[in-house]
Amino acid sequence: MSGGRFVTRGDKRLQIQERVEGHITVLTISGRIDSRTAREFETRLRDAINDASPWLLLDMKDVEYITSAGMRVLASTYKVISKFGRGDIAIAGMKDDLVHLFRLIGFDGLFTLYESVGTALQKMCP
In terms of residue numbers, what domain contains 105? Predict the structure, then answer.
């Protein structure tokens, strides 16, 4: 795994760190994804797609919670990546309650969910 650009931005409610592993942009997210932070979340996801490639891995092990505003951002980002005809958006390390929420609303059909970033990178980087 090779490191690339490493950037941290955000306020204390939402922190996002970015690094590149091969062809995958890994965003490490911590804090809350809610109506106050959804715009920043969306901007960072879109910038990651435009700056690198349509391959995203979201490390959400430190996400406290996500509201419907954050879920809308994820759904719209999925649509953007789908238009490329290649690429993927995967999520790693979510807490059990968030995994349950994703399954309840059917997001596990849109996003591949991994237990850890390491496992995700092994599967996503042939």
Answer: 7-124
What CATH number does the domain containing 70 carry?
3.30.750.24
Smallest Cα–Cα separation from 101: which of 89, 113, 119, 87? 113
Query: pTM of the entire structure?
Result: 0.87
Q: Give the residue ranges of the chain where pLDDT is below 70.
A: 1-12, 50-52, 126
Supply the pLDDT for residue 52.
Answer: 56
